[in-house]
Design brief:
This protein is α/β, with parallel strands linked by helices and about 270 residues long. The chain has helices at about 30-45, 70-75, 85-90, 100-105, 120-125, 155-160, 160-170, 175-180, 195-205, 210-225, 230-245, 245-255; strands at about 5-10, 15-20, 50-55, 110-115, 115-120, 130-135, 140, 175, 185-190. It is about 45% helix and about 15% strand. Helix 1 links the parallel strand 2 (about 15-20) and strand 3 (about 50-55).
C-alpha cells in the first residue's frame, strides 16, 4: 500500500492546488479521499491567504468516478452492506455533497482536467466554477453502465436537456472539444498548454476581488433555484453588500481615476 497521501495540498502565493492522488485507482473517490477533499475545501474557505483553488488529478486521469470496486471488495470479504433508503444513501455518501461544498466555498475553483472525468469525476467538474481540459480528455456520465443513477442533479442544469439525457441514458463519454460546445467545459487546449492556461486563469482569479467573487457565487448559484424576480432581488442585495467591501470601494475609485484596480481580496 502506498504511503502517499490520497490528496496533495500545495499552496503557492494566493493559489491552492488540491490534487487527487490515487493514481493506481485513476483517482476514484473512496471515503478517505472524499473526506480529505471536503476538509481541504473547508480549510481553503477559511484561509485568508487563499484566493483561488485548482482541483486536479495525478497520474493518467482527473478522476474515474466513485470507487465502486471498494464496495465489491468489501462484499467479497464477507462484509454485509448496510441497507439504505434514498435519503440515507445521499446523506452518507460524501461525494454527493461536493456540489454544495464547491458552491459554498467563497472563492473561485478551477477544475484542471486531463485523461478523463467520469461519473462522480464529471460531477466534480460540474461543481467547479470553471473547468479547463486537455483537448484529448473526455467527460462522461457513465453511471448507467454500472447500474447506478447519478449526474441527474447537475448535468441537466448545465447542458441542453436533450444532450444531458443522451449522456445519462447512453453513458457515452464526450470529447473535450464537444464538451466545450455544449457547456460542460470552459476551454479545451493542447495537452502541453494545459498547465499554462490553468495557471493563467488561476492567477487572474486570485488577483480579483475575492470577497466579491464569493458573493457572486452565492448570488449565481442560489439564483438558479429561484424565480427570476427573486434572483434579481438577490443580485441587487449582493451588489449592495459588495459595494461596501474594500475591493468594492477600490473598483469604483480605480474606474473614476481611469486606472487598473488593485484588489486585496477584502
Amino acid at each position: 500500500m502506498s504511503a502517499e497521501p490520497v490528496l496533495l495540498v500545495e499552496k503557492t502565493g494566493a493559489i491552492c492546488r488540491l490534487t487527487l492522488n490515487r493514481p493506481e485507482a485513476l483517482n476514484a473517490l473512496n471515503k478517505e479521499l472524499g473526506d480529505r477533499l471536503l476538509a481541504a475545501l473547508d480549510d481553503c474557505a477559511e484561509d485568508g491567504d487563499v484566493r483561488a483553488i485548482v482541483v486536479a488529478g495525478s497520474g493518467r486521469a482527473f478522476c474515474a468516478g466513485d470507487d465502486i470496486r471498494a464496495g465489491a471488495r468489501a462484499a467479497a470479504a464477507g462484509e454485509t452492506p448496510r441497507r439504505r433508503d434514498l435519503v440515507t444513501s445521499v446523506r452518507s455518501g460524501n461525494y454527493f455533497h461536493f456540489a454544495q461544498a464547491f458552491r459554498s466555498v467563497p472563492k473561485p475553483i478551477i477544475a484542471r482536467v486531463h485523461g478523463f472525468a467520469y461519473g462522480a469525476g464529471m460531477d466534480l467538474v460540474l461543481a467547479s466554477d470553471m473547468a479547463i481540459a486537455a483537448d484529448d480528455a473526455r467527460v462522461g456520465a457513465v453511471f448507467v453502465n454500472s447500474g447506478i443513477i447519478g449526474g441527474t442533479a447537475q448535468l441537466p442544469r448545465y447542458v441542453p436537456l436533450k444532450k444531458a439525457m443522451e449522456m445519462l441514458l447512453s453513458g457515452e463519454p464526450v470529447p473535450a472539444p464537444r464538451a466545450v460546445e455544449i457547456g460542460l467545459l470552459n476551454y479545451a487546449v493542447p495537452p502541453d498548454q494545459l498547465d499554462a492556461v490553468v495557471e493563467q486563469w488561476a492567477g487572474k482569479l486570485a488577483d480579483g476581488p475575492t470577497r466579491i467573487m464569493g458573493t457572486i457565487k452565492l448570488a449565481a448559484y442560489r439564483g438558479l433555484d429561484m424565480h427570476f424576480e427573486d434572483s434579481v432581488m438577490l443580485a441587487a442585495a449582493a451588489n449592495g453588500e459588495a459595494s461596501r467591501t474594500e475591493d468594492g470601494v477600490e473598483g469604483k475609485r480605480a474606474f473614476a481615476q481611469k486606472r487598473p484596480p488593485v484588489f486585496t481580496g477584502e
